[in-house]
Amino acid sequence: xxxxxxxxxxxxxxxxxxxxxxxxxxxxxxxxxxxxxxxxxxxxxxxxxxxxxxxxxxxxxxxxxxxxxxxxxxxxxxxxxxxxxxxxxxxxxxxxxxxxxxxxxxxxxxxxxxxxxxxxxxxxxxxxxxxxxxxxxxxxxxxxxxxxxxxxxxxxxxxxxxxxxxxxxxxxxxxxxxxxxxxxxxxxxxxxxxxxxxxxxxxxxxxxxxxxxxxxxxxxxxxxxxxxxxxxxxxxxxxxxxxxxxxxxxxxxxxxxxxxxxxxxxxxxxxxxxxxxxxxxxxxxxxxxxxxxxxxxxxxxxxxxxxxxxxxxxxxxxxxxxxxxxxxxxxxxxxxxxxxxxxxxxxxxxxxxxxxxxxxxxxxxxxxxxxxxxxxxxxxxxxxxxxxxxxxxxxxxxxxxxxxxxxxxxxxxxxxxxxxxxxxxxxxxxxxxxxxxxxxxxxxxxxxxxxxxxxxxxxxxxxxxxxxxxxxxxxxxxxxxxxxxxxxxxxxxxxxxxxxxxxxxxxxxxxxxxxxxxxxxxxxxxxxxxxxxxxxxxxxxxxxxxxxxxxxxxxxxxxxxxxxxxxxxxxxxxxxxxxxxxxxxxxxxxxxxxxxxxxxxxxxxxxxxxxxxxxxxxxxxxxxxxxxxxxxxxxxxxxxxxxxxxxxxxxxxxxxxxxxxxxxxxxxxxxxxxxxxxxxxxxxxxxxxxxxxxxxxxxxxxxxxxxxxxxxx
Length: 713
Prior knowledge:
Radius of gyration: 31 Å
Number of helices: 12
Helix content: 10-25%
Mean pLDDT: 89
Low-confidence stretches: 1-50
CATH topology of the largest domain: Immunoglobulin-like
Number of strands: 39
Number of domains: 5
Shape: globular
């Protein structure tokens, strides 16, 4: 500091102008020049100071704290929040509260920009702050789109790494520009709801009002494919009719301009507060399953066993009040009523099982609205042992509360997007990934004969697929272009991509019978499909005197493109030990399949997917464990024909071993043997493919398939 008594003070470096609270710009240039004129003198031999060295720029102040709300309409409660700074350092790790709020006190070393992620299960949201002051940073689907458009390859999860490596530059102006672009896309909705909140820095509460109602009114998906991300914003409006296609906008993260949502009116939107109503419904469901079994069900004799009964036997008030009218008998979904028989068939069978006591229902989100205003709710179940699963349920408003009602459909069917990875254990370099739709219809039988002659399924684009029954299968198969079941598959594959080490082969030429639709869908065409596409199913009965039944289905998501599926890769993989065990048991067989020997009462023919009691498969850390294990194969040769079959076994998501037993599906099913008094696989029946299945949080079906057979090459 200069001495105030010194008539010739030393010049001080100019003070930098810094943004943020408590800083004001100050220019000293004029004052310093005057001082030098007065004291530096041109004559008289006065002392002339040497020039001062150029000052180093003053460092920007470190952000001191960061806070905000993580929400997707419903509060993103219990999510793990991570903040990564410009240098790639994790400067905060915390958890959101029940309302989705979070707060972080940052170290003095934290340097903007800051990338914020909120992870809950397999779902992630992202946000960004380039302000050196830190402050409020909300984390929502809208901010995730902003981060996607800032990331060079469109993957929000990669932005922090790009900034840390210095390959991606983000500043406040860039963030403001990207926010403005996204708000322009949403402008018709924002205008209708009167929302002007900045999606990143604006204050709001996850209570269904204000900005949170905007989040309730849209469904956002961001799907990276390695080059960019494919983004869809769908309006969560109530359809005027079952076949009405969604209001949506699709674009690439790299598109310089994006068309906005079309004009909408307030009456197209559902009532506010659906997120809170969903959370309250799931809380009631959790309260029901917390009641001991003998208090839940009138026919139960033990809290640890299982009971059989119907909706009338559900006696706990906490359970009855979950349902519309306080009556579980009003529930009907895919032909199932509330109840449980000795074979564990029925709806809400967990209410009747002691092992389900303590299951929680959480992570609720709006899936979509049905034309009658019913709400399709996405949710997670979590057992006390840590097993989890994802599903949907249909609920109906009674006053301000949502109550369980079901889809009121007579038949068990659904249309879901699917992706599958097929690995060949007895061949190398030809593995591939396929994407498409699973057109599932349960193969109902009466007196051993199929109930359905066929089911015609009409896609959103008007294409018709025909499903046919097969004696040994629990589902209907999709007929090929010739009207036959060349392979009993319920999946319409739109595209396939080889992931073989040497490039492999085109999956369509490798497995032509699995591609029942001869149309080749490009990734660009799949990208244009809407998440909420509407499908129609017409059921034709074997008894022609029974009238046809029509049911319609709205999907929650479109299939991934082949590149998106490869980038996401949520597939389970077989362990090295299990692979070696299966190869040793099958490779000597010319076809590579696993063939059963003679039936035995003492040691029945089953298929054990276990490496001597050790895990048979591993699950990626970012994926949910499989909840179904299936074996596919063919029965023994009868009348010169080997009939196809599938056998399924439900498993906990935490399981890593499973055992499949033979199940007779209908009359004419020859793959099981009962001559020993024990139902088991018949002599010379064989297993050709193993499958692990799980439904993801976004209602995508994920199949991990392990083929034992040796395909023609």
